[in-house]
Amino acid sequence: MASRRLALNLSRGLQTRRAGFTAASWKRGFASAASGLKTQTTTLKNGLTVATEYSPWAQTSTVGVWIDAGSRAETDETSGTAHFLEHLAFKGTQKRSQHQLELEVENLGGHLNAYTSRENTVYFAKAFNSDVPQFVDILSDILQNSKLEESAIERERDVILRESEEVEKQVEEVVFDHLHATAFQHQALGRTILGPRQNIRDITRSELTNYIKNNYTADRMVLVGAGGVPHEKLVELAEQHFSGLPSKGPENHAYQLSKKKADFIGSDVRVRDDTMGTANIALAVEGVSWDSEDYFTALVTQAIVGNYDKAMGNAPHQGSKLSGFVHKHDLANSFMSFSTSYSDTGLWGIYLSTDKITRVDDLVHFAIREWMRLCSNVSPAEVERAKAQLKASMLLSLDGTTAVAEDIGRQIVTTGRRVEAGEIERKINAITEKEVMDFASRKLWDKDIAISAVGGIEALFDYQRLRNTMKPKF
């Protein structure tokens, strides 16, 4: 199943318990060197990177391969290929039939899964430590020896078409797909992960094999282990099973396009449907890349805007000024601020959902007005609240070996290194209200916006009116 939800992109850290009962012992903190949990990396001769975080006391491990290729590595003609391949990965190899593969995984008691995003394709397994060698063998087999039989392709074609229908029923997914399509229009980053339905119907075996040949190369792959698998053991397994991978793929037109910086385009897309009963709107400016100096400042600024859900018991007290205002005047059912990063750009914005369709203009106006406030009037207290929430989110998101493996794989395949927890904590703690206001002034004030709106949106002002709000005349 494709990983499609546009969630907050949070770097992650680990918390460690400290002995004693001094005041300092109650301060939130991330893992220190004393915890012994460090990321180790080794690069094989063919360019494959092996990265691990070894926990001697862990009974299980997550191992997986993170590939620097997703839907962004496709062309208009082959859009949907990466996700199609993910579906076919478990349908049989030269060594194992689909039945044998399923039986082997079931007998081991492990879990085998995969997902596709705009920039990555991931295949991973969670297993007992003693079964890690067998799962590395399985992963290498499905990545290098998948049969891609015509009968399996035809079966999965129908499965993916049904999946596409289900995705189209999820309003939030549709809004964010439209947001990407308008913000990065006519570019690889703007395409959907599943691809257009016509492409799903037309994708051929040769296109699938070409995608593997062009993108599943050692220089674009990271073998990750988290849990009870020692680094040296995983390196040994990598040399045994992945040394035959080609070092580099052809730098063809699709590759060059995927590495070209995406241009953000101020624009809007609107799908009016008055029968829905709700207005669902995403607003975004150009965000920051994974390795941007502004990455953590963007996350703190997003956390200041905050989230809101009227159905929650703590709705009147969800922390941010915008949530308090929205609740007091009953303007929205919910909103979610987001800072989503890619290798060279990002989207920073807010997703709004309301059944007060005659007051959509008020809701959007006050959301943008909150953005403008951030340019000149941010208090130390709300910055500290946002920083505490951000660090807590990072801790909660690293619960388990699979989450740790995800963090290692994503960081290394995208930036070449994993930022350790202590460094993340120092960077977040160092952010001040002045830096937040500077970020907002550079990224929000008088900047173009991308707008995606679906539902009862008759009351949503035209693009130019909303764009003018980005430079208010106070």
UniProtKB/TrEMBL annotation:
Pfam families: Peptidase_M16, Peptidase_M16_C. Keywords: Hydrolase, Metal-binding, Metalloprotease, Mitochondrion, Protease, Transit peptide, Zinc. Residues 202-390 form the Peptidase M16 C-terminal domain. Its main location: mitochondrion. Its cofactor is Zn(2+). GO terms for molecular function: metal ion binding; metalloendopeptidase activity. GO terms for biological process: protein processing involved in protein targeting to mitochondrion. It is found in: Mitochondrion. Its EC number is 3.4.24.64. It comes from the Eukaryota. Residues 50-197 form the Peptidase M16 N-terminal domain. It is an enzyme of class 3 (hydrolase). One of its GO terms (cellular component) is mitochondrial matrix. It catalyses: Release of N-terminal transit peptides from precursor proteins imported into the mitochondrion, typically with Arg in position P2. Signal peptide: none annotated. Belongs to the peptidase M16 family. Catalytic subunit of the essential mitochondrial processing protease (MPP), which cleaves the mitochondrial sequence off newly imported precursors proteins. Preferentially, cleaves after an arginine at position P2. This is mitochondrial processing peptidase.
